[in-house]
Design a protein that fits this description.
By secondary structure, the protein is an alpha/beta fold. The longest helix is centred in the N-terminal third of the chain and has 18 residues.
């Protein structure tokens, strides 16, 4: 009987995953990862981790499954929070969720449990396909809205080999039905949103706490006219429309100047001179371990059902230039571009 460590969060998805593995005859142990940084950020707000843990306890008691709590707060601070702050300072748009999967859930947690468990399971909507040559592939969920391969796209082959996703063939509606069938204590709980370590804290407040305030000018892109002021270029991302505080809009952020601390905005974000249909990615990670030779792939620039058709040009330094068939006005340095061949996620790179 294989031993499986199941990461549970208190939500419906991980709870159903736990029960499915139990029904399939695995020897399961539940693990709750405590990464909330209450000592560092408690003055900014509260985190619902105590309620999460209460839900986890109830689910595990009902299933008669042992529960272990693992504190990875220091690892999260060093490996994810620091990354987030560094990226913000540099004017880039970070993705802490992708880094949390790579560095914490399937990184630091692996270090904690060592080789005691055969597999690690979560409630992600994705599928690990095991091939004949002992390699694995990451496949998309049949639920295009809930599919979470984008968040898993920067893992390694070795990490993926250790994973099992019990919800891989299910839609969210089917998972909700299973939650009712199991009569889970949290069967009616809504899906969580936002970054775990932030809890109810706004990301802007988190940035302000770590990076501070640096007043600068908001400039109209076409005319150079000063329209207002801001607290720091790092609070804004390309394509942003909300939170600019400008009348007569809608206004969109079209560029940022890190040196002069100026943010440039425009009402004409979709005009021909601002077409955004090309990007370059670096630090590309392939699940196969070797570069793909395909010159046409599907591209995801964010979590969600939308794909772009992309034509790829490979460079000697390992970077890739991608030309999209359709424009995407939200391309921003620091974000991740995930690469797909049909339903198979091949890997991802960081937009530079």
């Amino acid at each position: 009987m294989k031993k499986v460590a199941v990461l549970v969060s208190g939500g419906v998805d991980s709870s159903v995953a736990l029960r499915l593995l139990q029904d399939q005859g695995y020897d399961v142990t539940a693990f709750y990862l405590k990464i909330w940084l209450e000592d560092d950020l408690s003055f900014l707000g509260t985190c619902p981790w105590e309620d999460d843990l209460k839900q986890v306890n109830e689910v595990c008691e009902q299933a008669k499954v042992p529960l272990k709590i693992v504190s990875l707060q220091r690892a999260y601070l060093d490996r994810v929070v620091s990354y987030t702050v560094d990226e913000v300072r540099a004017g880039r748009t970070p993705n802490p969720d992708i880094m949390c999967n790579q560095r914490i859930k399937f990184g630091a947690f692996f270090d904690v449990i060592g080789g005691e468990y055969d597999l690690i399971a979560t409630g992600h909507y994705a599928k690990v396909a095991r091939l004949k040559d002992d390699c694995v592939e990451l496949h998309c969920s049949p639920d295009p809205v809930k599919d979470q391969t984008y968040f898993l796209s920067y893992l390694s082959q070795n990490q993926l080999k250790k994973l099992i996703f019990p919800l891989g063939d299910l839609t969210k509606e089917q998972v909700r039905e299973l939650a009712r069938r199991y009569d889970l204590p949290n069967k009616a709980r809504k899906d969580s949103q936002g970054l775990c370590f932030l809890g109810k804290i706004k990301f802007r407040d988190f940035v302000k706490h770590h990076v501070g305030v640096q007043p600068g000018d908001i400039i109209e892109y076409e005319t150079g006219v000063r329209l207002g002021s801001h607290d720091g270029f790092y609070f804004y991302t390309l394509g942003q429309r909300q939170g600019l505080g400008l009348a007569g809009g809608p206004w969109y952020v079209v560029s940022k100047d890190q040196v002069s601390n100026r943010v440039f905005v425009s009402k004409n974000y979709f005009s021909d001179d601002k077409i955004r249909n090309e990007l370059k990615i670096d630090k590309v990670s392939w699940f196969s371990g070797t570069r793909s030779d395909l010159t046409e792939l599907k591209i995801k620039l964010r979590h969600g059902p939308q794909y772009h058709d992309g034509r790829l040009r490979y460079h000697a330094d390992g970077s890739i230039t991608i030309t999209l068939a359709q424009r995407d006005q939200g391309i921003a340095p620091g974000q991740f571009a995930a690469l797909y061949d049909g339903p198979v996620c091949l890997g991802a790179g960081i937009i530079v």
